[in-house]
Amino acid sequence: MTFVVPFDGSELAAAALVRAVEFGDVLDERVVSVSVIPDGNAAYARERGWLEADEPFDREAVVATLHEDVAALAPNAEFRYETVGRRATPGTISKRLREIARKEDASMVFVGSENAGHLVSSLSSVGGTVAADDAYDVVIVRHRAPSRIKRVAETSPHRAEKSDFYR
User: Fold this and answer.
1) d(CA 137, CA 131)
2) What DSSP string describes 19-69?
């Protein structure tokens, strides 16, 4: 099974990626970060910080920026990207993310979204639509602060601590 993280470089997407890696370490699951890029849409790329204000659209530069961000946060996570049409709607992007999650056999999808946690779909966010799919469980990350992974690790059935009998 796999943990999938839609990644657009935002703070909440970064927090979701870090959480997925933390849980993946405890549960021995692979983590796949997925970015969906509207091809040729320089304004979209600039809004997300993938390109500088005066930089023309360059798919390779956008992919490199996203991949570097993922690698800096989660060196062991796999990175995938897909392109969609220049004027792709949030619904198109969400659909592509759901398709990728199914293709990767996602057991959980970690979504960084301020409004997906309210189960509200917004035109400005793909989180609500991705969270609505029942093919996988969804973890909604609404806070940038670190998770309480230590508690998860302490209660994990994969914990390799031996009883006093073996000491």
Assistant:
1) 8
2) HHHHHHHHHT-EEEEEEEEETT-HHHHHHTTSS-TTPPP-HHHHHHHHHHH
What residues contact residue 107 under an 8 Å CB cut-off, 6+ apart?
1, 2, 3, 29, 136, 137
Task: Give the model's confidence band at 158: pLDDT under 50 very low, under 70 low, under 90 confident, else very high.
Answer: very low
Alpha-carbon span 127 to 131, nearest angstrom? 6
Q: Which amino acid is located at 28 in the chain?
A: D
Query: Does the structure show a pLDDT above 50 at 91?
Result: yes
pTM of structure: 0.77
DSSP annotation of 57: P
Cα distances from 4 to residues 22, 42, 44, 61, 136, in angstroms, run: 13, 26, 23, 23, 10
User: What is the identity of the amino acid at 59?
Assistant: R
Is residue 119's pLDDT more than 80?
Answer: no
Tokens of 138: 């969804």
